[in-house]
Please model this.
Amino acid sequence: MRSPKMVDDKKIKSLNQRIQKAKENSNPTLNNPPRSFGKVMKIVVEIVAAMAVGLVIGMLIDNYFETRPIFIIIFFLLGSCAGILNVFRVAKSLQKN
Amino acid sequence: MSAEKLIDPIHQFEITKLSNIEIAGLDISFTNSSLFMFLAISATMLLFVLGLSKRSIIPGRMQMLSELSYNFIANMLRDQVGDQGRSFFPFIFSLFMFIFFCNFIGLIPYTFTVTSHLIVTFAFAGLIFIAVTIIGFVKNGFGYLRIFYPSGIPIFLAPLIVPIEIISYLSKPISLSVRLCANMLAGHSILKIFAGFIVMLGFLGFAPLVFLVVLYGLETLIAALQAYIFTILTCIYLNDALHPDH
Model:
């Protein structure tokens, strides 16, 4: 292992000060655009995925008991509810950041 | 080249075999997808081997980049999961770097975007889903099943709430994989279509060219953003498995 190059304390101190200054001057909203932008980007998929899962479960049950289309309807509605619940949760967990 | 051949936005997603390998009837040929996965891993290795070889106190550009990415993921994991998540850092970090480099290498013309294939992203999401479920059961025992029946809900609502919660739980890997794949697929198709417009319009092509430059900037943002979202959602799912009561 190579030992790190020795640099005198003065240099590091002045570097720290400059970093601190630059951080204060920079715009905080510009620093993290992913957080605000990301919320919008990801929410639609959440609803669609839950609906699809509900639909598939409904179809499987219907095929098994041959009761088409009762369970498809029930599970599609449940899937929609799950999708809305998902959106609510994701939005809440992202807001925490 | 004919005009039809120029605008074939799906052609870039085609998988071609680079070498034929077949073992016990299984086709495990080395494809262009495998090649670009390999390239993404090599790029990650290169960044860290080159970046951390000097180990100076005042970091250079490469060292800064590798240290920043390390801090970024470490902070994300600490914010989302807490100290318990520490042991999962290697996995989360590799996941982020792999998706990040796959997305970015795909933006270079004539390359292949690994993450634009649903099977790749679904393999990741499915693996994460299974792993998170197992971790949940190992850490909480059968108490993990409580996530399907949140406390404080009257018993007569259980037949409604439990199926909704189960569907919501099962939809996690699907939404996770479809989000990444759809964003990559749509973005690259649009880029290709607009690039085709430039050639078709001749001199007037400067209008779509300007738009393409803007679009490329947006795609660069999306490439980083989708890697970030994929990773942060993995952290959130991990947190749900480790602390099901919250």
User: Anything to note?
Assistant: Residues 158-201 of chain B form the longest helix (44 residues). The interface with chain A takes residues 55-58, 79, 160, 163-165, 167-168, 170-172, 174-175, 178-179, 182-183, 221-222, 224-225, 228-229, 232-233, 236 of chain B (CB under 8 Å).
